[in-house]
Amino acid sequence: MQRIQAQVLIPGSGEPVEDASVLLDGARIAYAGPSSGAPRASEVTATYEVPVVMPGMWDTHAHFLGVTGLNLEDLVRIPPQVSTARAVKDAEAALMAGFTSIREAGGLGVHLARVIDEGTIRGPSVYAPGAIISQTGGHADLHAYPLAWMHGYAESGGFMHLADGVPECLKVVRAQLRLGAKVIKVCASGGVLSELDDPIHQQFSDEELRAIVGEANRAGRIVMAHCHGQPGIMAALKAGCHTIEHGSYLDEAAADMMLERGAILVPTRFVIERLVGAAKDSGLPDYAYRKAVDIADRHLEAMRLAVAKGVRIALGTDIATSGAESGVPWGMHGGEFPHLVEAGMTPLQAIESATANGPLTLGPEQAPPSGRLQEGLDADVIALARNPLDDVGILSHAANVTMVWKKGELVKNSPDQSSP
Q1: Catalytic one among 185, 406, 407, 412?
Q2: Domain ranges, residue 31
Q3: Residues whose CB falls within 8 Å of the CB of residue 255, separated by 6 or more in sequence, listed in order
Q4: Strands (DSSP E) along 35-159, which ranges?
Q5: Which one is catalytic: 90, 318, 378, 380?
Q6: Do 189 and 104 share a structural domain?
Q7: Do 248 and 380 fall into the same domain?
Q8: Domain CATH for 15
Q9: What integer pLDDT is reported at residue 243 of this predicted model?
Q10: Active site residue 117
Q11: Which of 236, 263, 275, 374 is the most buried (most CB within 10 A)?
């Protein structure tokens, strides 16, 4: 059994506790709370004294793609062996930044999950959808490539699958379940990085969306819906999609429907800011840069509205690229926290979005017992050099995450590191 003694414990849901203890019994938490109430443990093998302890964090929207630029065509130009090698390092970078769980949004995650779980490589727990499902000409289509080539790419294990009509939608969902998908990802609106579609326009018909959600639900999976425009948001919610990704044109009606249906917003402000701010240095095509600029201000308004209305929010970054030169590299997931606070969240609420709210984005049948410091839950725990309730921006720097336990295993121990 391991004991962590902390000046401050942030439980993931609820108020912080001073002078606290956490006991880890194998892969589970045996106790978390005031030190005065901690049970006597006769078989403590190690004791650690830290300033702050909190649950391991979740990024609920990121892509293991192994590309270094922000051009979708890189997905098919880079050899898969190279992409996979990069993604292995990306997984480790996320874990060292304190993100012990990733809900992937399409990419290599469904395969990485397997080798991480078997202990072959080191990384967070990964809950992945396999490929992104798109209509022909939609957000996950490479518009400059021949259509027959795109179908061949999908059949060979590519990250983007096209489906048109209910029968094809059912088949492609089943194909992802066959790979081991824990969640299904669909594009319910146009996007920024895709060339010809409009982020505002709805993609997939109502009937197609209902078919996708119904097939996923029969297997106990929820559907995460890429949505920028209000028509796509409303269609996705009516079809039963569990999470709305991005939500750039969320309005009062959409926010009210999210509250009514218990849907979760994953706003990914981090990537919007990076697309606009670092575009010229990251290979972002001009058409994508123009679309990012067009939605940037509206996206922040939508976030503020969601926070004010009380819509449940989970942290997601849309990080998808490898290497610092990309401008949006793995390991920078904590960069979303200041944006959540800018939108009106308290630091404690922002932390909850990355802890207790994370497992909820997988739905009741797939959610693991994670995201909070509570007896019986997974021993995914991190220690920090300083208190993020005083400055949530410290979570933007992996060096401030001094210790990481994943399911009770200490995988990072660097107590002397910290960054401003």
Answers
A1: 185
A2: 2-55+373-413
A3: 305, 306, 309, 311
A4: 46-55, 57-67, 99-104, 125-127, 132-134
A5: 318
A6: yes
A7: no
A8: 2.30.40.10
A9: 98
A10: no
A11: 236
